[in-house]
Design a protein that fits this description.
Layout: H1 5-9, H2 26-35, H3 48-58, E1 65-67, E2 74-76, E3 94-100, H4 105-117, E4 119-122, E5 125-128, E6 131-135, H5 141-154, E7 158-162, H6 166-175, E8 182-186, H7 191-200, E9 205-208, H8 212-224, E10 230-233, H9 239-254, E11 266-267, H10 269-272, H11 276-288, E12 293-296, H12 301-315, E13 327-331, E14 340-344, H13 347-360, E15 364-369, H14 376-381, H15 387-397, E16 407-410, H16 418-424, E17 429-432, H17 440-452
Parallel strand pairs: 3-6, 3-12, 6-7, 7-8, 8-9, 9-10, 11-12, 14-15, 16-17
Antiparallel strand pairs: 1-2, 4-5, 13-15
Helix pairs in contact: 5-6, 11-12, 13-17, 15-16
C-alpha cells in the first residue's frame, strides 16, 4: 500500500462530519482512499495541490507503462509485491525479438514470420512473444528507418526502438508513433535534447545508465518535464549484476517507496549472453527476477515455448485457478444430431475432456459450466455444479437451437444430479456418461450411433 489511511486522514480538511464525500467521517473516507475504494475528487474541500499530492501518493509504487496499441498492446508495471506468494504478479514481462538493420533481408523476414507464427494454445490461453525490437546497428540511418517501416507495415506488434543516434531514434518514432513504441536509450548525454522531442509526440521511453545511481536524476528530470511512462535499464554487464540490480530496483520501489526507481525495467539477454542456450537461460532468470521486458536475439519453438510456459506459471494468480469461458464448444464439425456433453470450466478438466472427445473423431458439443475454476466433483461438493445451475446454463447457452434431440450426457461422478437436472430441463433425457474422461473413447462412438437411429 503506497500510503495508509492514517497517513491520508492527516491531509484531509478535518471539518465536522459533513458527509459530502458519501462517508460518515474523514477517517472512513481516508480508509476507502487507501484501499482504492474511493477517489480524491469525492471530497469537495480538498485544494488542487492536496488532490495532486494525494493522487501521487496513492498511485502504484511501480508505474504502469503501455507499449503498443490495440489488441497487441503490452502492459507492464503496476506490480505490488516482491515475491509472488505475497499476493500475485500483475503484468507478465513482454518477450521481445531483436532485429538488427545489419541482418539480411531473409533473416529479417524470418524473424517477422516467427513473431507472427510462433503461437502456442495452452490451457485456455494463447502463448506468444509480444514485441519486436528494431536495432540501429549498421550506421546507416536510412537502412534503420526502412527496417522500422517494414516491421510497422508487416505486423501490428508493439516495438522497442533501439538507437544510440537520437535523430534516427525519433525519426523511427515518427514512423510508428501510433503504436506507442518504447524509445531506447535515453541517457544523461542525450536527455536534454530528447525531452522536447518526446513531448511533441509522447511515447514511452527507456532510460539507460551505467549504474542504478545514474538512473535517478534521469527519471526525476523526465517526471518534472511531465514524462512519466518510463522504463529502466541499469546497464548490467552480466547476469550476476543484472539480478542484483533488478532486485535492488524492485525493493527500493516497493519496500522503501522510492519513487525515482518506481518504474518497470528492461533486460537484454541478447547483449549479456551471446551463446544461444546461455541466452535462453539468462532470459529465464529475468522472468523470475523482475524484468518487465526481455529482449532476445533469436528463438525457435523449442527455446521460446519453455520461456512462455515459465512466464505463464509465474504470472498466473495463485489465488484463482485457470478457467475457460462458460459456453458450448464445438469439437469437430457437429450437426443437429451430434452428442452434447457437459463439464466444468476448470481449464485442465476442459482440455482433458475435449481431447478425449476429439480422439474419438465424433463431432460433438461440449457445454462448459462456470464452476469458478473447480473440477466437476469438487464443484458439485461446493454446490457450484448442481442440477439447477447446469440446467440454467443449458437454457442460456443456446445449445437447444443447434440440435434436434434433447439428450445431455453428464459426468458419471455426478450421476446423482440426474433427477434434479431432468426437473430443471423438462423434456430432456439426461444420460449418465463415464466416470472418467478415459472412458469417453469407449462410450461416445456407440452413443453417437444411437442418436442417429
Amino acid at each position: 500500500m503506497p500510503i495508509s489511511g492514517s497517513g491520508i486522514v492527516k491531509m484531509l480538511p478535518g471539518r465536522r462530519p459533513c458527509k459530502d464525500c458519501g462517508f460518515p467521517t474523514c477517517f472512513a473516507f481516508a480508509m476507502k482512499l487507501a484501499s482504492g475504494g474511493a477517489t480524491v475528487d469525492k471530497c469537495p474541500y480538498l485544494s488542487e495541490e492536496t488532490k495532486a499530492k494525494l493522487a501521487d501518493l496513492l498511485a502504484p509504487l511501480i508505474k504502469l507503462v503501455t507499449i503498443g496499441s490495440g489488441e497487441s498492446k503490452v502492459l507492464i508495471g503496476n506490480e505490488e509485491v516482491i515475491y509472488r506468494h505475497e499476493k500475485t504478479y500483475v503484468h507478465p514481462p513482454g518477450i521481445s525479438l531483436l532485429i538488427s538493420d545489419k541482418e539480411s533481408k531473409t533473416k529479417v523476414e524470418e524473424k517477422i514470420r516467427k513473431i507472427k507464427e510462433l503461437q502456442f494454445p495452452w490451457v485456455g490461453v494463447n502463448l506468444r512473444a509480444n514485441l519486436l525490437a528494431p536495432y540501429f546497428e549498421s550506421g546507416d540511418k536510412n537502412k534503420f528507418l526502412a527496417l522500422v517501416k517494414k516491421v510497422y507495415d508487416s505486423t501490428d506488434t508493439g516495438m522497442v526502438l533501439i538507437s544510440q543516434d537520437v535523430d534516427a531514434l525519433f525519426s523511427a518514432r515518427d514512423i510508428c508513433a501510433d503504436r506507442r513504441p518504447l524509445l531506447y536509450p535515453i541517457t544523461k548525454e542525450n536527455i536534454d535534447k530528447a525531452i522536447p522531442r518526446i513531448k511533441t509526440n509522447p511515447t514511452p521511453v527507456c532510460v539507460h545508465g551505467e549504474s542504478i545511481e545514474e538512473l535517478i536524476p534521469l527519471t526525476i528530470k523526465l517526471k518534472s518535464a511531465g514524462i512519466e511512462e518510463i522504463v529502466l535499464d541499469p546497464g548490467s554487464k552480466n547476469l550476476t549484476e543484472a539480478i542484483r540490480d533488478q532486485t535492488f530496483i524492485r525493493r527500493a520501489a516497493l519496500k522503501q517507496s522510492f519513487r525515482p526507481l518506481g518504474y518497470p525495467t528492461i533486460a537484454f539477454p541478447c547483449f549479456i549472453a551471446k551463446d544461444g542456450l546461455k541466452e535462453v537461460l539468462t532470459a529465464s532468470a529475468f522472468i523470475d527476477k523482475f524484468a518487465s521486458i526481455i529482449v532476445i536475439s533469436d528463438f525457435d519453438r523449442y527455446s521460446l515455448l519453455p520461456l512462455l510456459v515459465q512466464r505463464l506459471n509465474i504470472y498466473t494468480d495463485p489465488r484463482f485457478p485457470m478457467a475457460v469461458e462458460e459456453k458450448y464448444y464445438e469439437i469437430g464439425e457437429p450437426d443437429e444430431q451430434s452428442p452434447i456433453l457437459v463439464t466444468s470450466n476448470w481449464a485442465l478438466t476442459y482440455f482433458i475432456v475435449s481431447s478425449a472427445i476429439e480422439a474419438t473423431k465424433v463431432p460433438s458439443f461440449l457445454c462448459v459450466k462456470d464452476a469458478e475454476g473447480l473440477g466437476v466433483l469438487t464443484a458439485w461438493a461446493a454446490g457450484k455444479f448442481s442440477g439447477d445451475s447446469v440446467g440454467a446454463m443449458i437454457k442460456k447457452c443456446g445449445i437447444a437451437d443447434r440440435i434436434k434431440h434433447r439428450k445431455l450426457v453428464i459426468p458419471g461422478k455426478v450421476a446423482r444430479i440426474k433427477g434434479e437436472l431432468e426437473e430443471a430441463l423438462p423434456g430432456w433425457e439426461i444420460v449418465v456418461g463415464p466416470r472418467e474422461a478415459t472412458g469417453i473413447g469407449g462410450f461416445l462412438p456407440e452413443y453417437a450411433k444411437s442418436l442417429k437411429k
